[in-house]
Amino acid sequence: MAQNPGLTVKDLGERLGVEANGLYQPVRKLLAAGALRKSGTELHAVTAS
Fold this sequence. Notes:
two-stranded antiparallel ribbon; globular; alpha+beta; 16% strand
């Protein structure tokens, strides 16, 4: 995500060659952990300051 900010879950699934619906739970966990942030449908990595 850091190299490709703004990807959607669908985009990420296409790049990884997996179904997007299998990525929603891991993405939710990363959002809850603060490793990702969401802007609309776009995902962005949270960088350490």
